[in-house]
Amino acid sequence: MISCFPYRYPLYQIGNPQLRIFRPPFSLTLVRPGKEQPQDTVQFRIPMEMTKCDVRNYLEKIYNVPVGAVRTRIQYCTNKKRNHLNQKVKRPDYKVAYVQLAQQQTFEFPDIFTEKDVKSAEGSVEEMQEKFMEDEKQRQKPDLRRGGVTEWFGL
Amino acid sequence: MAATSVGRVLTLCRQFQNAFRISTSLAVQQSALTLTKSQSYLDRLTYPLLSSNWHCHVGQCRPLHTTISRRGLEEFFDIPENWGEATVKSGAPWTAKQLRTKSNEDLHKLWYVLLKEKNMLLTIEQESKRQRIQMPSPERLKKKLRQPLSLQIERSMKRLDTVVKEREDALRLLQTGQERARPGAWRKDIFGRVYWYRFREHALPWYMNKRYKRKRFYTPLFVTPHIRLRLEKHLRAKTRIQNKEREKQTVLQEKFPQIKAQSS
Question: Residues of A with CB below 8 A from B124's CB?
């Protein structure tokens, strides 16, 4: 029913039906923890309007992740920085949620940006370029017989 | 894995709409195989057998069934094959016209697919900022500006929202005759300006609400001269624009007498 949030949850009084949010407008960001966290803890950046119950329901219903405990805090970001016009620039605040998984599950933040060894096709221009670069590097390296002494010293 | 690949397929690529025009399960399999645009994604798409809740109510049914992904937190990241690649393929965002052809269930499912995709992009973006590496998916060159993928997805979601709102408006008008979902009223503020005040939900009646009573919806008498001055200023500005336009027209007529006078 309510998806475009008017910045407030609707009022709840005893006897009202359970609030249901179709098409939630919240988006979570999984972040790598800055400090060392226990194995079962996952760290998220969530919008300021979300609550702990929201996070729990979100993960359980949309991602099928069994959630044990959720703790949140608001990170205040600086308003001290100034731009080239000497105006104060505010870095936006954000809310952080620490989610502990139930059923003794563990989560480790993966390394996404491992560079793969790309071998270009034989006979192509790229391969020749790579060979040339490698030869150049070999030529740049100093003579091993000098034992680490630089060319600056004569002889 | 399946969800993001489905996400790529469904959310962004317009060409994949062919998959929606299906009426039988066999057609699903065939259409899935004949789509050649991104075979790598479809190889991993496992179309399951007809589930119990996917039976056609009417003769022509266009159901959309997405595989239930059991990956959990891995859905916040790309499929492992795309890790470390420089560019990742993606399609165009959804337009409102395309979205209007879809049923409510389809739109509902599409919203979640888009949402998961957006979460994944945000996660990757944050990680790339942390590692100080360029983000894998390229900034797609649009006609006017370079726009990142997350903006395209936001636009698709907004259009979805508009379509759903249109449908809700139509339904409400037919059933109750009310034009707006949120009740309101025309009210005067302290400065004499009339505006549409949208009602809020309160637990108390208005005469017991101290904060509400402090907000005055009437104009005190000492504001009347200020209103008159504001009106004069507005009229002066309006006549100034009109006079300028008229002068411009006369100058043009003098210079180029063959021009037909613009009817304003």
Answer: 112
DSSP-derived 3-state class of residue A29: strand
3-state DSSP call for residue A49? Answer: coil
Q: How many CB atoms lie within 10 A of CB B155?
A: 15
Whether B192 contacts B198, CB under 8 Å: no
Q: B195 CB contacts (<8 Å, ≥6 apart)?
A: B186, B187, B189
Average pLDDT, chain B: 76
Give me the interface pTM, i.e. the ipTM.
0.77
User: Model confidence at A65, in pLDDT bands (50, 70, 90)?
Assistant: very high
How far is residue B154's CA from residue B142's CA, in Å, rounded to a whole number? 15
Residue found under tokens 């990742």:
B88
pLDDT in tens, B91-145: 788 999 999 999 999 999 999 999 999 999 899 889 888 888 776 665 543 433 4
Q: Does A116 touch chain B (CB under 8 A)?
A: yes
Q: Is A62 on the interface with B (CB under 8 A)?
A: yes
